[in-house]
Amino acid sequence: MRTGMSALVAGLLLLRFLPALPPVWLLWLLPILGLMLLPFRSYPLAFFLFGLSWAGISAQSALDDRLAPQLDGRTLWLQGRVVGLPDRRDGVVRFQLQQAESRRAELPARLRLAWHGGPALRAGEVWRLAVRLKRPHGLVNPQSFDYESWLLAQRIGATGTVKSGQLLSAASGPGSWRDGLRERLLAVDANGREGALAALVLGDGSGLSVADWRVLQDTGTVHLLVISGQHIGLLAGLLYGLIAGLARLGWWPRQWPWLPWACGLAFAGALGYGLLAGFEVPVRRACVMVGLVLLWRWRFRHLGVFLPLLMALVVVLLLEPLASLQPGFWLSFGAVLLLIFIFGGRLGAWSWWQTLGRAQWAMAIGLLPLLLALGLPVSASGPLANLLAVPWVGLAVVPLALLGTLLLPLPWLGEALLWLAGGLLKLLFMLLTQMAAWLPAWLPETLALWAWLLVALGTLLLLLPASVPLRSLGWILLLPLFFTEAQRPAHGQAEVWMLDVGQGLAVLLRTREHALLYDAGPRFGDFDMGERVVLPSLRGLGVAQLDMLLISHADNDHAGGALAIRRDMAVGQVVSGEAAALPGLLGAESCESGRSWQWDGVHFTTWHWAAATDGNQASCVLLIEAAGERLLLTGDIDSAAERALLGSGLDVRAHWLLAPHHGSRSSSSQALLDAVAPRAALISRGRHNAFGHPHAAVVARYEALSAQLYDTVEHGAVRIRLGAFARGQGWREHARFWREK
């Protein structure tokens, strides 16, 4: 049985690693082949084919439910019901719509929409909306959040921006009740931590600020404020322990067998908490795991401790094969497997503090390979922070928050409990903030497969009992984490990365021993591309510090992420074409025409138009030459600045040209293109941007020169080996079945 279940899980999990889905006819043929193998007792292969077929069919169904290509970018009138809890912040309401219908087209089952300046929507309302719809699309970089994968795992078939709307029906149903409860929780006095209480009780993280999330990430405690298996399991464990304790004291009715009652009520509590939290995929996964563990404890304990974990994997993946696309799936099951491995074969009893300390040790070391594989930050302060925060939140805050919520109808009592829970959270955040400042999260550079395998083997050795010979060898096997460096460019060559930051610009230039960042991407309210995309990509590529941060000019789409870069990474020098217009914290110096320097055999030259009349014209232009191959970075200069550049005497001939102003109609003049004569052009822009970049006339001019276009929308991040005279590499070339080509 275990062999067949393991083969089924392997087939279901293979989906996560497929570059493309098999043809539909083959997916339907696989189970037939599996049935043909059963008479020959090839059970593992048959079950593997069953799993792969089911996962592939489910994924293909989700892909087929995406918005039709001909509707991409079009505005339609539609109506549907608001589901989940709308997220309101920075004047934007973000929400999901189900049962969307339009008289003009067939729509996906679920949409994710944003309404700038929209009203306070409520879950359960039915709206008629004018929406500009877009097919699922995300930024693709060496080390950043995969938005397209997340959308597919949530089975969201389209995103969009609401232009206007009309309420057709008032809120109703369970979603409306949850929304009303959220409003009640946010209205109580919880020592300023009302948003954190809403996150704990309802799974709604919209009340947590960016600073809060940063602290939680740096201390490895995100799982404590997002309803996860830990919270569901904790409540189930408390209820189970309560009944077991009553039975041990003789206070439980003898005519009622305590074990089935303990398991049943524990599962009912877990299920109720899950429903309160919206019963999203991670919560459903936790409820399944808790339910199977309780069933195993009641009837099947003699079958071994790994069986409930294997059964939970099978059930979760059969119910939702796309769960394997989410990092939380791997971390949840990985954490449970580690705990089983650590505590399953122990001899003798441990005290509570030994148990908690050993668990945190296992999580800190054992999850390291998973965090590295998933590209997630590693928290150095996590073990200590969790040693304090897990019992704090689990045994004090969560029970008080749930009990306070339950007793809200009683005057003063419920609010008093929530005030106390909020106070405990406030104190906890104060301590976590200090820990985060002391030891912030660390994002190692991407490891080669051989180095990752050594680290994984080292963690396994360290988790073995202390009496195992050569256990200390595990520490040596972890050394690749600290001493393995990404391959650096040869002397005289440069590695160039045009990062995918949407409607903005960020270009990394690396020589053998130096690094320069040209622009830092935009910032929209709390969403900072510098923090969310540029920094993780730099660290994933092995850039520990910047010798220069060159901000072409002060427009938000070029300079918005600069403060985040300056705050979280060592920067030797900041230079800009609009130094006076940038925040003083950057300490920027003015760009000077004719300034030249050399790093590792690579030559750099800047140019700046002193007579510029606006920010775009004031962009600092950078020319890079490596082994005779040249790249010209132009910021947002327009045709007037281009004429000034051509009249400056600077030799602008280049093999690679960054299209000025994202391909705007006012730039990329024929005179500039004739003088530069580029072999290839780089365009950094956002999909369906409001400016229409790049303009069709500009694209036609580049095509007339037979210049190859590298567009972040179509290629994702683009890597160039300057000095090798080779073609650029788009990061979307790394095929994933969920990515739109």
From TrEMBL:
Residues 503-687 form the Metallo-beta-lactamase domain. The keyword Nucleus does not apply. It is a multi-pass membrane protein. Keywords: Cell membrane, Membrane, Transmembrane, Transmembrane helix. PANTHER family: DNA INTERNALIZATION/COMPETENCE PROTEIN COMEC/REC2, RECOMBINATION PROTEIN 2. One of its GO terms (biological process) is establishment of competence for transformation. This is Competence protein ComEC. SUPFAM superfamilies: Metallo-hydrolase/oxidoreductase. SMART domains: Lactamase_B. The keyword Transmembrane helix applies. CDD domains: ComA-like_MBL-fold.
